[in-house]
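Exercise: predict the structure of this protein bound to guanine.
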Amino acid sequence: KVIEGPTITSTDPSSIQCRKHQLTCIDGEGYIERIVDESDDDFESVRQHAKQTDQLLTLRPDEYLLPGFIDLHVHAPQWPNAGVALDRPLNEWLDTYTFPLESKYQDVDFAKPVYDDLVKQLLANGTTTVLYFGTTHNPANLELAKACIRHNQRGFVGKVAMDNPDQTPEYYRDASASQAVEDTETFIKQMIELNKTTSLKQTPVITPRFVPSCTPESLKGLGELAWKYDLPVQSHCSESDWENGYALEHYHKRDAEVLDEFGLLTDKSVMAHGTLLNQTDLNRFKDRGVAIAHCPISNVYFGNAVLPVSKLLKQKVKVGLGTDISGGYSPSLYQNIRQAVMSSRMLHDGVNSELDPAQRGTANDPISAKNGFYLATVGGAESLHLRTGQIKPGYLADLQVVQAPMPSFNEETMDQIFEKIIYNASKDDVKQVFVQGRFAK
Ligand code: GUN
Ligand code: FE
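Solution:
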């Protein structure tokens, strides 16, 4: 396949590369093989050959090719509640709205239509790779992976482990620590089998829900599994005062230290939120190569805090973007890029300078649309060790075709076109999506 048209891709946290007219050539394995620029000698011959073999896709004049987005934090079972009860504090929201919903996935027939719809919605919004929390139930978790295969999305799926009887309801918890670990290992094996049937691999993920939900025994067993199978790990870390306080009270340690002690902070770990991480925690994340899933919409509600993205990027801590459905109400990473930028501006220019920035964000540290685009593409790809997120030879052809969301009324630079796309694009403007070179929308 050869896609003809303008391309926009992130190269580093604060730069984008825009090309007005090129041919993005995709090989049979779904990788970008070559990029032919209008100025290259063989542009016309490559174009003609693709056209004659019916492999040329020419974008409309107002369409642009962007990398697909990578969502580092989605609670798939919470999709039916997107937008519900976000005014409640985190632990009350979990107990009253979220655990009762998640417990329903014991019934695979309940799970199927939800997961089918969610995967379609995320793809329709331009998201080609997703790191998912499932529930405690393996049959439903497998359905989520199958929905990803069916709709052509690169999924990372975790069986949620939560066995602490003090912090989880009886109707929704793993029966014991050993059961939580055993079911996680079973899920890993089931995913290995499932992958034999597909070229678009789905990855199992070790998923302790968060420190309060788990016993020390299950955390220990899950850490051992992460090392045994060399798999990614996901959890929540330092999202809220309550969570931070729980670790201090029960372990006399910080949240990050507890996870590290059990071998759960590796260079394949992605920790959601991290808004309350201190510099010692961040050094630990850097030493271990742990990535942060920045969930800017959700952080407005539950964390009530702003992740200091700009500082993290300067310190070279890995950061990507997550919707945190349904702690975040929107499946769109466009919306989350916007919120990331807007939240980062809240403490700009010394406004609210009486706040202690160490507690609630960093003053004078705004980020840009380009920074946000970097998080949603390159940052996410690095966090998951994937060669995707950029339009570049040797990278996976995970791509979205986006129509300019409004007309041009005057001469515009590519930078201006880019900013208008980031700030105004909605699902309707995402015209086509490819994952590993194959149609997904
Ligand atoms: N901490 C533990 N579980 C959850 C969850 O489902 N959502 C969020 N935002 N935080 C959590
Ligand atoms: Fe979450």
